[in-house]
Amino acid sequence: MGGLNLPFQGVAPVPATADESASAFSVTNAIGGVAISGTSAPFPIDPTKPSVGVLGISSQISVVPGLTPVSYGVHGKSVAGDGVRGETQGGSGVHGESQSGDGVHGGSQGGNGVSGSSASGVGVIGSSDGNIGVRGDTNKGTGVQGFTRAPDQVAVFGMNDAPGTVVPAGLNHPAGNGVWGHSKVESGSGVVGSIDPNLTNAAAVVGIGPTAGRFFGDVEVTGNLKVDHDIHVIGDVFLDSAGKDVAERFEVDPALQSEPGTLMVVGEHGSLVPSAVAYDKRAVGVVSGAGVLKPALTLGPSVSTVSTAVIALVGTVFCRVAADETPIEVGDLLTSSNVPGHAMKASDPGRSFGAVIGKALAPLRGGRDLIPIIVSLQ
User: Fold this and answer.
1) End-to-end CA distance of the chain
2) CA quadruple 125, 80, 144, 104: dihedral positive or negative?
3) What are phi and psi of 239, to 5 degrees?
């Protein structure tokens, strides 16, 4: 084993071209081992000073205004293995400090710029007193990515444990948040959560707390919205759909047809049946969904073990009407007729009280057809 007398000082020659780099001291291990190995004393004389195995310092300064020189205290380069590798039993494997630049910088053409692993501790940790602890920056890939194979852990976790509860007004800047996402891409999203389609109990995004979610701006939902508790609304509720009636799901007699537009009455056994008697005071409404109109709001459970139908109680709906004897004009009051499931003009005021089911919104000169009506039981 060769030796080197210390202290050693070398001066690098001036490179022939601007692309060349020069070294004041270079060591090559031709047999494939470690070229340079540094070991610090296990029991330093002055415990107040750091014990360093290898120390690299670069004192290059810029002599051209506006030009930042490329300078490294320690530079590691490898064709296939690790450019720089640090191992420790208790401290930091690699520790970097900088007054203005990068404390530790790693670059790679195909592998990992910086890779960290740990059996029980933290693989990579970044901290800062006044700036970003860990930052990921990429031109084509993912800036920061987290993976875990433990079902009781999380791939990416963010926490803000600053003391106090005062947060600057507004949430248009990352203040007081555990995780903040922001996008400048059109049709992009600041934060996205997704799950595999075969999962039935998982959720893409979950909020936990007295206020589990807070939105500043419009919220768009393209699927179903399920709410287990109350809904409190300050302002108006607009149902921008083809639905124009408020309906309720009723049990119907499965032996009788209850097609959309059919006028329904309460049967002897409590379930609804199509009307069949003129001026029937048992009329409750019209089966919703005929024509281009659908129910805007439906009361009652969507799933039932018995035969049910959605009955329009209030609003606009298409109804089956009969004008065989008396033509129907716009504005006429309607009641049940002798034609099963059909309404007719209420011509007898004495018999109409309690039997009116609504008002016609379109005329029917004769015959039978579907016309829009306003359901309003009287």
Assistant:
1) 109
2) positive
3) -105, 90
Q: Under DSSP, is residue 334 helix (H, G, I), strand (E, B) or coil?
A: strand
- Encoded tokens for 107: 């670059």
Closest CA to 377 of 320, 314, 332: 314
Q: pLDDT tens across 190-229, in order?
A: 888 899 999 988 888 888 889 888 888 898 889 888 888 9
CB environment 13-37: b (16+ within 10 A), e (fewer)? eeeeeeeeeeeeeeeeeeeeeeeee
Could you tell me the two tokens for 273?
A: 């049946």
Question: What's the CA angle centered on 95, arms 91 and 101, to 5 degrees?
Answer: 160
- Whether 312 and 299 have beta carbons less than 8 Å apart is answered as no
Task: Give residue 64's Cα distance to chain centre.
Answer: 49
Token look-up 């049990």 returns 251
279 Cβ neighbours under 8 A, 6+ residues apart: 335, 336, 346, 348, 351, 352, 355
pLDDT range class, residue 132, cuts 50, 70, 90? confident
Where would I find the beta strands (DSSP E) of 269-332? 272-274, 283-287, 294-299, 308-322
pLDDT tens-digit series, residues 153-181: 888 888 777 776 555 555 555 567 778 88
243-375: CATH topology is Virus Head Decoration Protein; Chain: A, (2.40.300)
Q: pTM for the full model?
A: 0.57
Q: Are 273 and 326 in contact (CB under 8 A)?
A: no
